[in-house]
Structure formats: structure tokens, C-alpha cells
Protein 1
Amino acid sequence: MTTARDIDMSIRILLADDHKLIRDGLRALIAGEQDMSVVAEAGNGREAVELARVHTPDIVVMDINMPDLNGIDATKLILKNNPDIKVIALSVHSTRRFVKEMLKAGVSGYLVKHCAYEELATAIRIVIKDKPYLSSQIIGTVMEDYATDFKSDKSSVFSLLSSREREILQLVAEGLTSEDIGSRLFISGKTVSSHRRHIMKKLNLNSVAELTRYAISEGLVSSEY
């Protein structure tokens, strides 16, 4: 029987994924582990940052593709606010770009989603001991980056745009107006419009539709939006 004392001593986990079905599955998995408990769930990146601040979990299981704020930039903010938190990336992506950017953001582990249910508990127990954990599908990608001496990808959205510009690009691609974005980011709509013009100039794009297609191609937003 699990007691209150057991819960207090368990590994405290925040689940961040925009699909409730995934969160429910992960929560059920963790519920079967006596040394783990889910303290909060987030459906978007910005909510994950706030819940991490409020609950100070030991581990954040972070999806990469989420609305409002992508998992890469959300991870950077969480670790900036509290470097003691461990983040495990959870994604459908095993491509070099996403793996590299999440590792640069400071994650301690990286799981491919279709393996998550088999590997998550193991990954959590390894990461909590300050050791890294990578799915087998990810190791080859990391080794490839070492082999190429981690040459910078100058075409990546994470190289071309600042974190603020990526935030605005994502929200524009999700269909928010300049006023809505300004309200969410506590800046004026005029400032948002100025940022958007700079983004379009940097990317050599001429319309919101082109910005949206670019954001989807770079993985900032899902094609569902």
C-alpha cells in the first residue's frame, strides 16, 4: 500500500504533451511505479514553464511539438528558472536537427515516442541520478554529430531567429493576431508587428501563409494547426 510518506519521497514528474491521450498513457505507466508520482500535466509549452515554476518537479517529460511555445524553448526557460530540474525530451522526431537542439537546450534524456512506454521508467531512474539517457534510435544521430564535429546548421530556425522571434513565429503560425500575441507576451501589438516584419525579412518570406508553412516545416508547429 502506498503511503503519504512514500509519495513525498517519490520522484516528482511533470508531464508536458498537447495530446491528452499520450499524457493519460504516461500517467498510467507512472502510476504503476512505486517510486514515482505525477504532480502536474501541461498541454502546451508555456503552461509547462509555469507549472514547472509552481511545482518544482524532479523531472519534466517534455514533448517537442506543442502549441503556444515549442518544447525546445520551453526547456530552455524551465532550466533557466531552475537548473536542478531534469528534462526528458519525448518526440516523434529522431532527426538530427531536433535531437541537437534539445541537447543544446539542456535535456538529460531523449526518448522517441513509440518507445516511451517501454523506456520511460528506466529513463527517469537513470536521469534522476545525473546520468544521461538516450533511446537507441537517438544514439546514432548523436554519434553522427560527433563525427561531423557538430558543424552548425545555419539554415535552422534555431540559428536564424532569436527565442522571442521563434515565440512570435509560432503564435503567428497558430493563427493568433498581433493583439492576441502582444497580450500573451505582455508587449504591444505594434511591437509584435515589428517583430513579424523582421522575421519575414530574415527568412525572405512575404506572407503569413508562408510563415505558417515555414513554421510547420521547421517543426515549431504541427500541421494540425
Protein 2
Amino acid sequence: MKKNEMDLLITEAVRDADLRPEEIPQIDLYLDQITSLVADKRREGSERFADRVLTKTMINNYSKDGLLSPIKGKKYSKEHILQMLLVYEMKNTLSIGEIKRILQNVYRLPDYDAEMLERIYLRYLEIKSFERQEAASTVEYFINRCALDTEDEEDFLTLLLGLSAMSSYLKDTVQILLETHYPDLNAERTREEQEKKEESKRLKAEQKAEKQAAKSKESKKEGKETSDAPESGAEEQK
């Protein structure tokens, strides 16, 4: 793959469109209005991001999991929408439990308010903008540093493996920073994993019981049909 072609592809790969705070109405919005607002903004970016929408189910789950501040009625404030956007941005790397731990720590800060959340989100958008601009040159540096020829199939595969490793290292870096900053996070993760295992066992047991009950019912039905059937000799006498 030629360099100019790769640069164009990388630029397209990171060309997502973010909803800025000033684009969020000051009035409270219903779920349908929020999902439409985010979806419309997504369509301004690359096509690969168009279907990565924020859904009503996702928002309801965020609320149930305690990732959003308490909701009054059926409308959501600008602060709620910013909270949703932060969760949405982190969920590709972090678990819901980890995101909850991070955000609830922020919500408990003495000086926390909607303005603080907006400042955090704006600084994050600035970092994303920088990362978009640097994405192609970062990959180019990696290629030159490792002396890779992207038009050679072996080197191209090596490049993909190297970038995959880099992605994995960055994700692990986020994890270790979280675990160090929030020492109780491992205990929470272990508890969540155990709860998931127990829930999985319970569902499997219920499904097994349902199958056995259905099988037993079917056997009884077949037995009844057999006993109710007239004997061939009696039928001939009639």
C-alpha cells in the first residue's frame, strides 16, 4: 500500500464528529431528541461512525447503572447529555463498572458541577482533535522507525501486528492507571465477574429445567394419546 493511500485511509479512520457543548440545547430534552441530536452529528463524520449511535436502551442502562445523575421526570438536562457522551466515549475501552467508579468519584468532588463536567469534556475534545491530526504522522514514524515497506506483503502484515500491539499496550496502560488510582477497582471487578458467572449458571439451570419440563410434558402427552387410541380388535368388532 502506497504512503499517500495509507495517509488518506488513516485520516478517514479517525474522522469522527463530536457533539460540542455549545451544540447541546440549554433546555431539557426527551430521549428521542437526544438520540436524534447525536445521530445527526455522527453523520457529519466518516461513514464508519454513522452507525455507532447512542440508543435509548443504552441511555436507560446508563441511568440504571448509576452512570448518570438522578433524572427528574422524563427529560434530561445538558449535564446529563454530557455524562452520556463521556460514558459513550469510554465504553470501548473500559467496562461499565470501571466507568461507574471513575464518574462517581468525579460526581462526589466538593466542587463538582455541570461547568466542571463541560470543562473536562472540552479539554477531551481538544486532545481528540490533536490525536486526529497526529494519527497519520504517528503511523508514518512507526513505519520509518521499524524500516517497513508497506508495499511489501510481509512488511504490511508486520505493520498490522505492530499497530495491534500498540493498541493493546495503550489499553493495558489505561487499565493499570485505573487500578493504581482506584485500589478497590480490582475487588469490584472480581465481584462483578463472580456475579456474571452466577447469573450465567442460574440462566443455564433455568433453561435446563424448562427443557426437562417440556420434555416431560411431551412424554405425558404421547402416553395419553397412546392410551386413548382404540384397540384394533375392538375396532374390527364394531
Protein 3
Amino acid sequence: MSETGEAPRLLAECARALSALRQAAPLTHCPSASPTMPLVANVLLACGARPMMTHSEAEAPALTPHAAALLVNLGVLAADGPQTLRACIAAAREKGLPWVLDPAAIGAAPVRTPLAFSLLQNGPALVRANASETITLAGGAGGGSGPDTTREVADAAAAARRLAKLTGAVVAVSGKQDLITDGSRTARVAHGSELLPLVTGTGCSLGALTAALAAVAEPFTAALTATLWFTRAAERAQALAAGPGTFVPHLLDALHALDADGLCRNARLEITREEA
């Protein structure tokens, strides 16, 4: 069932979340995915948040309570990665911090796939994934190929709603048309750029921005704000870029320049509710 009247209210909440992030500058702990760390850190800084990226088992859990939110990204796992991430989650839960699970490349991977299912039992505020990862995490055959999805976001809609209902987490699925759901309410965002999949770390960066916003807004608003912020900035960047190499600096500039009005103006956003 379409909820046309709800979109303006949600956009107003997103505008407040963007402003709140810039005012609070939340320290966001992203302890994994080393190859993408520079882009993730620069995206957080461009938006107004602050990155912390300690990933050793000896230090990362001890530093987690000093952050405002935690991103758990399975993109690159060191030998002590599972133990480090479990300890960081335990520290976040003890402090009452929101944490985001990004189950990157689960499916065929023999370590990260069972790890993702295990971590899911620890109550993430949000799950941010592509379509294949979402279907896998919901108990289906996602068919992912490494970090790439082989399924469309529309294929994962039912799985995302089911996963949200089972876990209590807001589930954000990225793709050509992004989807955010809490199990009953679903937002679809029709913004983005075909250059995003050509740059390593854009998905990790969206997850980090989602975590930063979870420090200043409730999970559904955080995921929707992050998605609008990132995809609308990507559109602006693509208009100026010659290709993926020049896209990244334009993306950082666009993330930095986007304000609450630009976030919401002419937003292509659809809200639906599942009928009982």
C-alpha cells in the first residue's frame, strides 16, 4: 500500500538527521576492510563525521566505547578478524551504541558466511547489504559472486522484509534502486550513478555513513538519510566526472556540499506499507 503522505515527513526527518550529524560530528568506528579505509574515512570526513579505524584485536574493542557508532564490515578479514569483530560488538552493546552489519561477500565464502549469521544474533540496529547478500542472510540462495550481486534489489524485497521482522534491524539493500525496510514500512530511493560499482569501497562508505547517522537518528531515518545523501551526491559527481578516476574527488566534494535542502528537493522517494 502506497503512503504518499509519509514521504514529506520522512524527508523532513532526513534533513534534521543531516544537520544533526554535522553538528555532532560523531566518531564512527570502522575496524575492518583495510583496502577501502582511505575512501571510507574521506567520505565520513566530507560529510562531517569522524572516522576511527583501529582493527587489531588488542586495541579495537578497547576503543569502541569511545565511538558513537560501530560499522562491522566483513569485506576483508584478517586472521584475528572474527574475534576482533565479536569483541567490538560486545563493547558496543555494553555501551548501548548502535552498530551496523555489512555482510560483504557472504554466500560461497566459507568463513564470512557463518560469521555473518553468528554476528546477526547480536542485535544490529541496521543491516546494509546488496541483494544477493540480503537473500543469503534471510536464509535463501543469494547467488552472490564475491562482493558482487547477481540479483536485483526487487528480488530481495521480500527477503529484506523477512530479515527485518526476524531480527528487529532495519535492512537497507543497495542497487540501482535502493530499498530500506523495517519489515512493515519500505522506502525505495531512485537515485544513484552507474559509476558507483566501478569504485572500490563505495558500498563500505555507504555503510559507514549509515552508522554515523545511526548515532544521531533512529535506524530507519539513518538508513534513508545515508542512502539519499550518498546517491544524490553520486549523481552530482557523475555529471562532472570523466570516468571513475575523476568521479571519486567529485563525489567527496558533492557529499561535503550537499545540504538539507539539496538532500530533499525533488527526491525520488516512494514509501509503502505491507498490508496486514
Protein 4
Amino acid sequence: MSDRDKLIVFQNKKIRRIWHEDEWYFSVVDVVAVLTESKDPKDYWYRLKKRELEHGVELSTNCRQFRLEAQDGKLRLTNCANTKSLFRIIQSIPSKKAEPFKLWLAQIGYERIQEIENPELGQDRIKEYYELKGYPKEWIDKRLRGIAIRQELTDQWKNRNVVTQKEFTILTNEISKATFGKNVGEYKEFKKLQHNNQNLRDHMTDLELIFTMLGEASTTAITKEEDSVGFDECKNSANKGGNIAKRAREDLENNLGKSIVSDQNFLPKQKVKKKIGNC
């Protein structure tokens, strides 16, 4: 499962989740934050449990605890609920968003079940998303392949004691810096991407995607071959993988006589307002 799968967005609010025993479990505090817009959703959740307990309802029995990534990048035990239990909790929260949230939640569960029965549906949804945004078919094919390669790499890292999101970020930057001479943040700035939620890969050219895939696929192969374990060893493998892509990129650039590192992006073009009269 990709890092992106661990977060979903409802009305611009992020909700953490985890796949466990063939179903999604959602962070209750995140859902409370979405429905109530409370400045302190943890306190709201505490008071909600206390209030319901006075009426003989123990909301905590509807929850399980899983380690989810907190704002500091560390994995912390978090109250989570599956779709059925979350519906029960939502009933206790007075909110205009409750009904649209329930419908949205049910749709997410249905789509995931479909994707388990037929994994190709997941890729079809991603493909449709890019098509609607106007990306060319050849680019979409490369982007989907890149997602699969990235998934294989992150799975290797997880199985080799790379724990926090911060470590994942550093390793990703290690490959990017070696491959292109820019870390992810520098690359996004180069492409004039101004928001944190803008995915750099969604703004790469075909060649940039290809060399990104080469760097990450090479890192996966080296990590396996050297049996890298822990952050430091995985970082060394990431540097080697990125440098393989770097040498291939530089060889191509020498033959082309120009850099393939591009400031091109897929941001929508700003419409130029026509001047009226002397205005």
C-alpha cells in the first residue's frame, strides 16, 4: 500500500487510515476534526466519550488502537474505527456534515472491496483521474508504472526497519539529489510548485519520470542484493541507486546536448484578462 493510500481527503481535511483484516480503520480524532471543526479534536473526543458513557454508551468499545503517523513524523497509538463502528460514533456528533460524510465513507469502502476483488480497478481509477486532468496517454502509462516501482521500493524500506515518514522523506531526497542534482523540495521550487500537496511526479516530463523510475528501481535492486537493513544502510543503497540513474541521465544529456531536467509543469495556464478601452 502506498503512502498516499494512508491518507484520504474529505472537503480538504486529511483523515489517516490503515488497512487491517480486509477493511479500513480510520483515525477517530481526524474524523472528529472534520465533522466538528474543533480547535482541539482530541479534547472533543474525550468529552464525547465521557458524555456518552453517562448515558450507558461506551464509544471506546467501537475502537481499536493502531500506530499511525503523527504530526511529528513518529508512529503513535491512535484510536481507530472501521466503517460500521465509525457510523455509530458519528451518530453521537451533531454536525451538518454527518450525512454527506457517511455517504462518502460508504463509497470508499465499496471501492476498496471492488479493488480487492479486481486489482486492475484501482489502476483504472488512477488512469481516469489523470485523463480527466488532460494528461497524455503515454505519460499516464509511465506514471502508473512509476507508482508500482515506488510501491515496491517503499515496501522494501518498511521491511528493513525504516520507520518514520521523516526517514522515508530523507531516503527519497537521497535518490532525487543523486539522480537530478535536486532534492524534492528544490525540484518543486524549480518547477514553480507552491503548495505542499502538489505531487512533484505529477509535474514531471516523460524523461524525468523514466529516470525517477530508474533511480528507484536500481535502489530496490541494490537494497535487496546488499540486504540493507536500517536507515543508514538503506540510505547508502539509495545513494547508489540514484547515482546509477544520474550516470544514465548525463550520458543521454551529452548525446542530446541539453539537460532533461525541465521546469515544465502541468499547472493550468492562467487566462490573460483582456483590457477594455484604455483600462
